[in-house]
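Researcher: I'm preparing a figure for a lab meeting and need a structural model of a single chain. I don't have an experimental structure, so a prediction will have to do for now. The sequence is pasted below. Please return the structure as tokens so I can convert it later.
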Amino acid sequence: MSRMRETFLFAAVGAFLAVSILWNVAMVAALRLFRIDLPFSFPFRLFRHKEPNLLQATQGRSINKYVVISGVLLFACPLLAGLTAYDAVVRRFMGHSSYGMREFALSVAWFALLGLCGVWTSIRHWQHSRESGIGFAMAAIIVVKVATNTMGALMAVALLTPAVLVCAFVYFGVRSIKRADGQRRTVSQSSGGESNFVAEQFVPSEKYKAQQAGMAEALVSAGLNREQMKAMFLLPLDTPSGEKKKDI
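Model: Understood. Here is the structure written out token by token.
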């Protein structure tokens, strides 16, 4: 690949990032007019957010409104705008082609795919009360587009499919290990008190011993013998002298 082609690809990637982020900046400004107060730093938090700003801003509204705002306006639309800018740079400087029906059909397909991903992601955010930006989706799209423009569609699919499968396997494997470890720790913490209590050896106090001795004397005076007293008491007791004489 020539240096000029590399320059055009870098320019296309820059256009994709800039247009995607600027779209969300404009969308944040528009949402603030409808009393959805998002900070202007919101579009620049490309990965997991420390605080669910959009969930807090849309508190009291229905999940449908949240899904439209989060999944469509702030996810699918900015990514489609960035893709349009990327393709415009590639067509203009690398392909020397114009926008036609083929490109329109691809844009519609991309929007449908991004819309489904955005709706699914926003529903999960609503359920778990957490939010993440569009950084991971942007990175995935850039990898796919650059690989397609440099190696061709078939070669990109042949190389990226195994890589995606391996990454998915590692991700879900690590996630399963963390979940199992968390469950094991929860079980051990919840059952630790009971197991320690059961295993703890009983150590009688001096007060307890005195009470047992007093009860033994009372029972001896009532006429019980030594064998009956052993069956009633947990502690070995010195039989009172009167009971010893009675046995003799």
